[in-house]
């Protein structure tokens, strides 16, 4: 049974004065299996944050079913929802820490609300602060911490009640690149060592590449594409997905860049798409050399995600036209190949 299952979920917000109702979520079906990390990406207004608020019952559906850990949560009373939320941790973009409390006090808060005995609280807080690397900051106040340290406190607090599910809403958007990678590494440990399922809401495809097993792409309140991260990054199907992927993976030069490249490099341009390790760059280069074709890499690159490689390389091919024709045909038999017109 999936840990989270949404079936034909709709969420419409009532109309403000003089305006029409807002359909934030439109017929979404989504499953999240126990133990996986799912990245939900979309531009502003796509509905991704609303979707998370439906999962933790901070918003109610207009229609459809939301099940968490096998329990239907739509229609539950507030007391029952509090029980469900104890099994769901939440971390936020702006940390949402209590400034009046120390690091220890912030992590203690959900345990106090849950009525955990003081001795058990102390052991749990100590374990968590060691886990996130902040044992030496236990009695520091929030204002004394860096952004990355604040988010570590947020993660420790979210883990306090031993949740099975962790929801991260733009959890790295306020951090610099180096600190972002540290926080993502911590989240990978949370998943790997504690077995906690994670749903990450983000507009940064690099976060998905670094963290998630599976990606869900949202647009205008709908899921438009989903699949394993490597599959979606290497072969995006929808325009919105291709826009996201283009921020981290070079596809092919646009018309302006292509014209500039042609001004600097002679020959015919072809784009080669590499997927996995069955065909290596050296295999393709060997074919070109066998046909007496000179080549130069002018655009693109190769990525590695979760042990699998993929990427796109644009080559400028120069030589006898007949030899180039034969070489392109031979290369096309190895990898997807597209000739780029001037």
Provide a brief overview of the structure:
The chain is of the alpha/beta class. Helices cover 37% and strands 29% of the residues. Helix 3 (103-113) packs across helix 4.
Helicity, as a percent range = 25-40%
Low-pLDDT runs: none
For this structure, the CATH topology of the largest domain is Rossmann fold
User: What structural class do you assign from the helix and strand content?
Assistant: alpha/beta
Q: Tell me the total number of β-strands.
A: 14
* Tally of DSSP helical segments: 12
Please outline the major beta sheet. 6 strands, mixed
Beta-strand content: 25-35%
Q: Write the CATH homologous superfamily of the largest domain.
A: P-loop containing nucleotide triphosphate hydrolases
- Order of helices and strands, N to C? EEEHEEHEHHHEHEHEEHHHEHEEHE
The CATH class of the largest domain is: Alpha Beta
Number of domains: 2
Distance between the termini: 53 Å
Domain ABC transporter: 4-245
Protein name: Methionine ABC transporter ATP-binding protein
GO molecular function, one term: ATP binding
Pfam families: ABC_tran, NIL
SSE layout and pairings?
Elements: E1 4-13, E2 22-32, E3 37-41, H1 48-55, E4 63-68, E5 71-72, H2 78-85, E6 88-92, H3 103-113, H4 118-131, H5 147-159, E7 165-169, H6 177-194, E8 197-202, H7 205-211, E9 214-219, E10 222-228, H8 229-234, H9 239-246, H10 255-264, E11 268-275, H11 281-290, E12 294-305, E13 308-318, H12 321-332, E14 337-340
Parallel strand pairs: 3-8, 3-9, 6-7, 7-8
Antiparallel strand pairs: 1-2, 1-4, 4-5, 9-10, 11-13, 11-14, 12-13
Helix pairs in contact: 3-4, 3-5, 4-5, 5-6, 11-12
